[in-house]
Amino acid sequence: MSRQITFAVLALLVLGGLFVTLRPDGSNAGPQDARFNVSINGDAMEPNEFTVRDGDTVTFQIKADRELDLHFHGYDEAVAVKDSETATLSFEANKTGSWPIEEHETEAELGKLVVQPREGN
Amino acid sequence: MKRRNPVRWLAAPGVLLLAVASVGRAEAHGFGQRYTLPVPLWLYLYGSAAVVVLSFVLVGFFVGEEKVPGGYRRYNLLGVHWLRTLLPHPALLLTLRVLSVGLFALVVISGTLGDQAPSLNFAPTFVWVIWWVGLGAVTALVGNLWVLLNPWKTLFDWADAAVSRMALGGLELHAPYPRWLGVWPALVLYFGFVWLEIIFACAPRPSNIALFALAYSVITWTGMVYFGRDVWLRQGEAFSVFFGILARFAPTEVRVTDSGACTACDAPCHIEPDSCVNCYECFEFAEPAKRQLNLRPWAVGLVRGEAITADRLAFVLFMLASVTVDGLQVTSAWLRLEALAFPATQAVGRWGYPMLQTLGLLVAPVLFGVIYYGFAELMRRASGREQRVHTIAAGFIYSLVPIALAYQIAHYYTLLLIQGQTIIPLLSDPFGWGWNLFGTAGYSVNAAVLGAAFVWYSQVALIVAGHVIAVYLAHVLALRLLRNPRRALHSQYPLLALMVLYTVSSLWILSQPIIEETNRAGLLLYLR
Q1: Strands B275-277 and B291-295: what pairing?
Q2: What Å distances lie between residue B160 and B102, B157, B266, CA to CA?
Q3: What residues are paired with A77 via a beta bridge?
Q4: CA dihedral sign, ordered B249, B251, B257, B261
Q5: Is B28 in contact with A120 (Cβ distance < 8 A)?
Q6: Count of CB atoms within 10 A of residue B148's CB?
Q7: Cα distance from B412 to chain A (closest Cα, Å)?
Q8: What are the tens digits of pLDDT across the range A75-88?
Q9: Which of B34, B278, B339, B470 has the largest CB neighbor count within 10 A?
Q10: Is the separation of the CB atoms in B190 and B242 below 8 Å?
């Protein structure tokens, strides 16, 4: 029995040690402001993937070649973009996951907002 | 030598990606959309390391252990007075059955008449998410509800009762079921179902679901009429066989404590000294005093120690392989592989690509079987060559089930909790006609119920737990099958290596970015 307890304790130590060693520290800097200039031409959004961390404030400045409503799925944030004008949308990215960004009317997916957890990645 | 045109070869993956992109646009918000992030590399490595470390620790635990684990602790729920009154109450059973038949009818009707957009119609979400993923999880974690809910069984019973009342005799012809046929009919039907799930591009289309449900009904009822209801449920009804295997993991069992009743009901039940477990036909006809509905530890049903026939071994192997293929084929790594084969499939024509995938689904279990038998041979050698390789392969196959189950739950539970919510508005508006029967049509899905970090840790924890259970089951089986504890221990090393391999590949799949199933489905549409 004592051998088994030794085994279990050793295993716990090894697993705990490995976890602490492998797990990245993450960002210590706290929430950041992330600004993106976005242009939409036809079906292409440039850039089309935005990676931030949980709690960051994201600000999108969006230009498009036509009038459209852009919808941020999961956050239910939307912004109306007019021809040749820059539209601005800002919100706190506090839901982790990979969220589609869609043109509201057609539900076409133009890009993704990837919100990573603050720690452990 | 003629120079190859590099552009053509490079263009193939491009065409695929283009197809994926354009379809993604057309089908955003479509069916089966996932919002989770893949497990990060460090956590994948950590999980793999934990699997290896824990495997050694368990083996260390087992060294010197000689007692063959026998029975397990049970608690009979029917021994509790109010449960004994409530659970077998005809009104409760009838309510459940009416509900189940009603849902079955709703799937067929909404699939046929309702809006054909998968996300606006009750049928796709109910069948693919609530029933297939949800009931699968409930069966493994709670118990075999399918025995109670199976609408094909209930409808057959009702029809049979009606026919008997008209004094026309019963519906069943009771043709003798050929022994060699085993559970092969169930395996063929299950293969068809998995094919629909992961290869057929138009599987989420409501009218197709209604059509499949009706076609499957015809097959099932024909089988029930010709061979008898219970024979077909045991050998040919794919979902009864499938859920029955999952239910071996469940912490509940039905038991008949009367070996006479166990032999009398003509089902080939495995009879323990004085009782039989999860032998539903016997349970149905046994005296109430001889019936038990027991709580038991999880997974003990996988080491019951009955002889496992080749057909059943094939069924379990296909289950194990198809779970892996299902996960693998949505990874971008797999898509890149497919892109390599894409030009060749186009030469065959528009069916080339689905044919390649079908071939993959056929080859995967064979490959899986070959690898498994290879390891079984190693186990045979390690344990003193006393057993035949088939005996070893059959004897240990159920020990791998927890790994597949853990992977399946880790992979799908987010879909169940997020996409599953759409059933709330769909219940109010099953046809997509703008109804609001229960006032829930306006419910909007909360896609952020699960934080990414929680999902990662829970997925890795599930996979590691599945592995630990599997290693433990293998140990119990080895002591029972090989008797000599030393040999039993030696036989474990090859199996342990196989289990580590299988578990780590499950973890790897979870760490891969996935190409959404909607896109894949659309990809095939695009290629037509």
Answers
A1: unpaired
A2: 19, 5, 20
A3: A72
A4: negative
A5: no
A6: 15
A7: 16
A8: 989 999 987 789 99
A9: B470
A10: yes
